Predict the 3D structure of the following.
Amino acid sequence: MSSTEMTILVAEDEESFVEALELGLTREGFTVEVARDGQEAVDKFEMIQPDLILLDLMLPKMSGIDVCRTIRASSQVPIIMVTAKSTEIDTVVGLEVGADDYVTKPYSMRELVARIRAVLRRHQGEEMPATPRDRTLKRGEVFLDPERHEVSVRNKLVKLPLKEFELLELLMNNAGKVLTRDMIIDRIWGAYYSGDTKTLDVHVKRLRSKIERDPSSPKLITTIRGLGYRFEDQKR
Ligand code: CA
């Protein structure tokens, strides 16, 4: 993650800390804005919409706790709370003001930057949740949705009995590969296979009649003589 476009709002009233933070964070590539009291922190937050707030607990006009609560009422912006004593951390954590992390003065710039990056990374991960794996299959003109148990061909919904659906799903999942008759029978019928060697062929024939433009000259499900069947891997 590049920090070049990240703006950190530093809410801090002690000048020595302000200077060190401006220098250190700017060197790390962050843009730094400073608020010197609690009210200014809230105002500047609304004005500049920073990517993260480094919030001192003890601030004039409005405490860090109140600033945190105020901002949390409308925003999930990452907030790192800074306390003077480690015992204060327990207090603010107990108050559940909604900060993402806490650091105690004195802190090393290296540690602080590591915390900032960790919080930013975590926050970005939350903003972009991993999309649930899409199991729908789209192969050329055939679209299959296992969740909804739907198949459409050339944008028309096609009704398929369970075994035909499973057969098509298996073939589409292995598009471009030859699946042997034994393998298909094993996967679709398994132990319940009647033993009639024609069952598979009958299902393939029915399937073709529903999805092929010309079932007598199949282009989607092709027969590989002596081996089995293949769903042709068409351009998507
Ligand atoms: Ca202070």
The chain has two domains: 7-124, 137-231. The chain has a mean pLDDT of 88. DSSP finds eight helices and twelve strands in the chain.
